[in-house]
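USER:
Try writing one entry.

ASSISTANT:
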Amino acid sequence: MNLLTLLERLPGSYAGPTGAEPAPYALIGVGEGTLAAHLAATFAPLTLTRSGTQFVVSSADAADVARDYADLAEVGGANVRRVSTGGSPDDVDVLVPGGLVTPYHAAQYLAHATGHAQAAADAELLLANLRDRCAPHVEEANPARDLAWTLWGRMPLLFASPDAEALPHAWQSVLARVGKTLAVPVLGDPLAVVTGAFEAQHEKGDAKVALFLGDVDAALGVVREVLESRIDEVVHVPYPEGVGPEQVGGYAPQLALWYFGAWVATYLAERYDVDAADPPMLARAQAALAGEPGELNLSAPREDVRRTDVVQGWTDEDGANEDRTDDFDTEESDADYDGE
């Protein structure tokens, strides 16, 4: 199944437990469970608890640290629910699919398990609405494809209000994993960053686009105004419509924006003509960390990881170093440099 088909089928595909666990709740995410825990942090603090239910969301490659967290919570007196993409049966209470779709399945389980079934239902509605607007057969006014065009050839800078800090995390993840694109989340005090980062070196703003994810509060409004004169483009990616006004922000819209980001990243990979699937080295690294037998080899042929040729003058494969400096010492070059 290709990624576009997987994304089309994702809304409504959650088939895990729907019952609520005893409160109070606490949440820890490691490995592939980190993003799911971040998106579901509105339901439970990201910490350990001594009572109620401790959720530990993980993957097989992070089984050791997940086990340590689970043991600590059990010793403290909490009921532990281990949510994972795989591993030893003793380390998994709730099994969720691995890969790109882990945040959806794990976060929807957490919504139900913490007694927020309505938020889970709202998320399904928003995802379904986005699917109908972003699917490949929608050729005109497809917002995901249009935004992918905007990002093509540029480095995205990711901004969100403090109560939605999971969104830069989510978009950095999908843009890298699927779109093979580096995006930079701007966290902390973004105003201090943007007012200083591009001063006196305005070329640093070239080929940059700022994405404001979710609601833009007063501070982000100032940041946006500053960036409009310093980088190529500023784009607001609002929460999708489809639920009541009281649901603006929070879990369901944030999960929906993660889903929208996955569509954008898939179309961006298409624009770059790269495979949107996980690179083989990721699977090898995860398998090695999970303790599976086999030699860990993360190297790849140079032509597989470079899109353009490097500058001439580097050491050749046989060890000979060609001196190219003479090319830059001619009288013609000096005249060009002096503006003659």
Remarks:
- The longest helix spans residues 251-272.
- The radius of gyration is 23 Å.
